[in-house]
Task: inverse folding
């Protein structure tokens, strides 16, 4: 039987997820083109049934600006599936050249490293706002990691000479190496966890 590979190049076999908290939520079912046209969106926890590469593609479509004001537009990528898939293919080729490893494995490890474990929740008690540390849900951990990786890469490439593929490849590689000095995703994760630690 012919093995199903991503873009007919990269295998989903033997990719180990070491973080037991997010293991059930990272889908590595073999798929050639990571596009399911939202067929699972009516089901509960539908994101868990979506391949992790497709979730990554969806985040690239709408990276935009982090925060309340949408200062940076996402218009370049929105709805352009083929453009986004070409970006991912380019990113994976660069990662394969850098690491000599399966780029899907590198992406999964980068998500594991960038997934925060706790964060701050604010609520009102009387006349004051109270900040309290809360454990982050597994699904939110993955969403946060993918969002920060794509947003930081988009900001580095928006209106700059560096391409989005180069920026994404660098960010994923640095997150894979767990390098807080170079990876914005790791730096942001550590900042939030530090704040949460002080609010326990």
Result:
């Amino acid at each position: 039987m012919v093995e199903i590979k991503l873009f007919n190049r990269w295998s989903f076999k033997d990719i180990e997820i070491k973080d037991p908290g997010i293991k059930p939520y990272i889908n590595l079912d073999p798929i050639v083109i990571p596009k399911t046209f939202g067929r699972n969106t009516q089901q509960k926890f539908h994101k868990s049934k979506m391949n992790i590469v497709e979730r990554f593609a969806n985040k690239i479509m709408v990276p935009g600006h982090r925060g309340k004001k949408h200062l940076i537009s996402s218009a370049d990528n929105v709805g352009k599936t083929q453009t986004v898939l070409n970006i991912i293919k380019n990113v994976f080729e660069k990662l394969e050249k850098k690491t000599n490893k399966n780029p899907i494995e590198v992406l999964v490890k980068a998500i594991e490293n960038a997934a925060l474990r706790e964060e701050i929740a604010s609520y009102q008690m009387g006349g004051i706002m109270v900040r309290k540390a809360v454990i982050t849900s597994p699904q939110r951990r993955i969403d946060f990691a993918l969002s920060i990786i794509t947003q930081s890469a988009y900001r580095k490439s928006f209106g700059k000479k560096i391409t989005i593929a180069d920026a994404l490849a660098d960010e994923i590689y640095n997150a894979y190496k767990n390098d807080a000095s170079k990876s914005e995703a790791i730096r942001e994760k550590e900042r939030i966890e530090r704040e949460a630690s002080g609010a326990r």
The mean pLDDT is 87. Residues 5-198 form a domain with the Ribosomal Protein S7 fold (CATH 1.10.455.10). Helices lie at 52-61, 81-99, 103-114, 138-157, 164-176, 184-198. The CA atoms of residues 96 and 167 lie 15 Å apart.
